[in-house]
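Colleagues,

For the teaching module next term, I've prepared a clean inverse folding example: a structure given as tokens, and then the sequence designed for it. I'd like students to try predicting residues themselves before seeing the answer, so please don't circulate the second half yet.
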């Protein structure tokens, strides 16, 4: 299906300005994960189905940060565009089918899939949403035995790295 022409030049510029990576909601989630000490994630990792926005391979957690408009949020009652309705209905249906397929593929490979909707990151909902996401990521790390999931107190000062380095040099 070809893209119909924009209804106005302003609409065309607005649509072209939409980003698929490093969106504001995605940056907010990444900042909150880093603040919680959850680092070591991959961005748009090609080895995971659907290239999740944020992926913890060792913990087997895939996080999708979905825009309410493009992915048709179940929480928001968004209207259908008035112009080119057939095109938009088909586009949104394809997006939703792709999202469901990617999620099913990941779950079949024993990944924990987290879908965060843009509206869940606004205002007072942000803190509770991120607490839940952080809890899921940490639990998945414990379940999959991810490196760094359980930190020994001695590891906090870098002792484990120095000891490993000394063992390597002694060989």
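(Answer key — instructors only)
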């Amino acid at each position: 299906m070809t893209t119909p022409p924009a209804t106005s030049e302003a609409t065309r510029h607005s649509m072209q300005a939409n980003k698929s990576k490093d969106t504001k909601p995605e940056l907010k989630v990444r900042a909150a994960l880093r603040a919680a000490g959850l680092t070591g994630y991959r961005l748009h990792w090609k080895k995971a189905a659907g290239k999740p926005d944020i992926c913890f391979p060792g913990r087997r957690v895939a996080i999708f940060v979905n825009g309410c408009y493009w992915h048709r949020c179940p929480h928001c009652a968004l209207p259908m565009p008035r112009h080119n309705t057939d095109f938009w209905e088909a586009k949104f249906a394809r997006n939703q089918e792709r999202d469901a397929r990617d999620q099913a593929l990941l779950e079949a490979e024993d990944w924990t899939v987290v879908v965060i909707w843009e509206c869940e990151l606004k205002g007072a909902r942000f803190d509770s949403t991120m607490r839940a996401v952080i809890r899921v990521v940490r639990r998945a790390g414990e379940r999959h035995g991810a490196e760094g999931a359980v930190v020994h107190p001695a590891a906090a000062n870098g002792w484990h790295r120095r000891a490993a380095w000394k063992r390597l040099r002694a060989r």
